[in-house]
Amino acid sequence: MNNKPLSIIHYSLDEIHSAVQQFVAAMGDRTVFAFYGGMGAGKTTFIKALCAELGVTDDVVASPTFAIVNEYDSSHGPIYHFDFYRLKNLSEAYDMGCEDYFYSGRFCFVEWPEIVEPLLPENAVRVEIEESDVEGNRTIRML
Q: Could you tell me which CATH class the domain 7-142 is placed in?
């Protein structure tokens, strides 16, 4: 992951769809996005809106906290949504075959990626979500 910002987006919940459109425009040909942010920062909310923008046809887009990975059908083919919060070590990620997903060429949105960083492709995009000083506002940095 490089450190030069690809995009910085400021938004409120009311503006999330505009923020997602800006995010999609900045995605380029990259497919793996590692979302960093504290509990309640808005990672899952943003990914839900992102999946809607990418044409996910599933009725429910939810954090895969217990399943670890959810697969959604979309107009771009399968989209994989990970939540590694519960993983205790890297071997659990190896056991589930997450590298196969990361190198599939399909969109992969990864919440709590810290434990799997060694497995992420070199061109994975680091996405930092932070709450701002104004209640409900967020800043996203794509690095």
A: alpha beta
